Amino acid sequence: MVSERFVRAEALCALWVLGGGGDLPASGGELDRALHATRATMPAALAEGLTFSATGVGLRCLELPTLLLAAEEAMLAVSVWPTYRDLRVTLDPERARQVALGAGLSTEDAAAAGRALVAAARHREASGETGRHA
Predict the structure, then answer these.
(1) What is the arithmetic mean of pLDDT over 56-67?
(2) Can you say whether residue 89 is alpha, beta or left, with left for phi > 0 and alpha for psi between -120 and 50 degrees?
(3) Mean pLDDT of the chain
(4) What is the DSSP pairing of strand 77-79 with strand 86-89?
């Protein structure tokens, strides 16, 4: 049986792809805060069991490091050189659509949830609330 972390990593990557996200922010807190802001619209395969904590560096999703590592281990994403602060999602749109359907979402609903996630992450980047240091 496939580990839950891989199922959740695949769901995250699928939403990101269907939402038109480009590279996935893997550090700086953008994705943590975006997951928190959009968790009500996420498919259960991703949202259930996500926990968040206020830390010294801002709000963090405690499961996110494990999910991002699982995405790399399953070759759903690769680190972007030279900074390694982002992941390039390798999941193609057709496979992302299949993942969404398997999670019980229509392609349209998954794309809408993905766009909300991407917009929340990009809003944080644009407003300078990234937590990234030069």
Answers:
(1) 94
(2) beta
(3) 90
(4) antiparallel
How far CA 77 is from CA of 13, 21, 74, 87, 100, in Å, comes to 8, 13, 8, 6, 17
Instruction: Give the helix, strand, coil percentages of the chain, each rounded to 5.
Output: 55, 15, 35
| pLDDT band (50, 70, 90) for residue 75 | very high
Q: What letter does residue 28 receive in the DSSP assignment?
A: T
- If residue 111 lies in a helix (H) or strand (E), which one and from where to where? helix 107-126
Structure tokens at 99: 């993942």
Phi, psi of 101 (to 5 degrees): -60, -40
Dump pLDDT digits (tens) for 81-104: 888 899 999 999 999 999 999 999
